[in-house]
Amino acid sequence: xxxxxxxxxxxxxSRSETLxxxxxxxxxxxxxxxxxxxxxxxxALVFNKLFFPTFAPLTGTMxxxxxxxxxxxxxxxxxxxxxxxxxxxxxKTMLYLTLLMMGVATxxxxxxxxxxxxxxxAPILLVxxxxxxxxxxxxxxxxAVLMAIEHAPAHRRGFxxxxxxxxxxxGLLLSTLVFRHFSGYPEATFLAWGWRVPFLxxxxxxxxxxxxxxxxxxxxxxxxxxxxxxxxxxxxIEVFRRYMKPMLLATGARLAENGLFYIFTTFSL
Length: 269
Prior knowledge:
Layout lengths: L14 H31 L1 H4 L6 H33 L1 H21 L3 H4 L2 H30 L6 H5 L1 H21 L3 H8 L1 H5 L1 H13 L5 H8 L7 H8 L1 H24 L2
Helix pairs in contact: 1-3, 1-4, 1-6, 1-8, 1-11, 3-4, 3-6, 4-6, 4-11
């Protein structure tokens, strides 16, 4: 989402409200990253056998990883789209929508028929669900950070803004543990239905996340801007016009970091 406006001394919510929003952001991002990382583990271990069985094992694995890459291509698009509308309609609404999108897409993956049932449509539907996942996580992370820091006092914005980032590690750990449990089943059982259960569990996490976010107040910074009609007409254009250099620097730094991270957490499987 677009660069946040620094809160005035009178803007920050009470300490209890700030903690509530930070905790909700942490839980929401943990759920979304559970969904996102779950796909990576399945791409490494399962999808080549069930969605690309006509390929040689190595080629099938690479095709499965190619579907995984679709989520990364969609993430910046999701950030732009949901960031734009988050600056016009509110952070809370977009966070609710991105969580819903992510949870529905992940649950749908657990229900997808495989190549043996519907042929080429199986990988096509898999790619479509991965696209929705990427769009959702692209809008989720930035919005969650904004909600946390815009509820926080100015001198604690960095601290509370770090809470959503902890959701990345929690989501990775949770998805790995859940998938590890079901991968311990006999291979025939695991490939028949065991791999689906971690994806279907996302529906429960989705219900919890939506309930938590429904109880949150809108960002006080956005509420103040809306009350004085200070929203930008085209937030996306404002970002590119005013913040191009820091945006490119931040993007380069994150590319260098994330490249190695995903090699270790997915491709090494």
